[in-house]
């Protein structure tokens, strides 16, 4: 199997490292808007490189992995599908809902699989939480609590093009809540705050956010995000049912210390970031994409799934700005 990869930044380079270790991947071709960077990464990994993205698509590929900048996603996804190439793309599909709908319209009838990168679906803990909910062992679920707490803010130049905290960060929690419960979000109420660097407010964004989601069966989900959690990268999901409760992310590396007398500190160290925390999930995610390319299974997370999570993020952003509850039906238009 010959795969192409567009985008050789941090996540793209990690994907390339994983793909070159896949037994079915006989060759890998890298490309980037910065051709020199693509050549450097390819040389380091011992794989091929192409001078341009166009040249990448002309490299007799079986599938394409997209880890380029967000504004390039729609064109690259559509280009891959129209070339008949199965495609894996990091979230988001596009920078906004109209862009995502346009990609869905162009790819929906093509019959070519598209897999969007929500890696938490491939994490062992999230999968176990889903199984516990779907089996009924928790009874009916009354509350979910989800957190994505980054240890440090991103570079200032990243924030204006990130889409904002809810679209960039919270969207992973929104997708995980949908996937674990099997229910859609009906309404949100969100708030945000800025107590850190000025560049968040200057970009119209917030550095900390919280949202209450009401699911279509009445379950409540509380989602909390921040760019300032210096204790470490903290991603958790708690699922509380009438019979039992489970948690994801409560382990020896949880960056949270108890102040109760006699409670020993966790051995740690905390995860420094998402790449370290979710490395096994990224491996399983790309293993699955290889199976999708081989035709053994359908895409486990398509454009439609990404759109549903994006609707929730969009509703949270509207709610934050306008200080009111917002239904998902409202942002669907």
Automatic annotation (TrEMBL):
A matching Pfam family: GFO_IDH_MocA
Domain Gfo/Idh/MocA-like oxidoreductase N-terminal: 2-118
Keywords from the named record: Oxidoreductase
Record carries keyword Oxidoreductase: yes
Domain GFO/IDH/MocA-like oxidoreductase: 126-245
Family the UniProt entry places it in: Belongs to the Gfo/Idh/MocA family.
UniProt xrefs under PANTHER family: BINDING ROSSMANN FOLD OXIDOREDUCTASE, PUTATIVE (AFU_ORTHOLOGUE AFUA_2G10240)-RELATED (PTHR42840:SF3), NAD(P)-BINDING ROSSMANN-FOLD SUPERFAMILY PROTEIN-RELATED (PTHR42840)
Name recorded for this polypeptide: Gfo/Idh/MocA family oxidoreductase
Organism listed in the record: Amycolatopsis minnesotensis
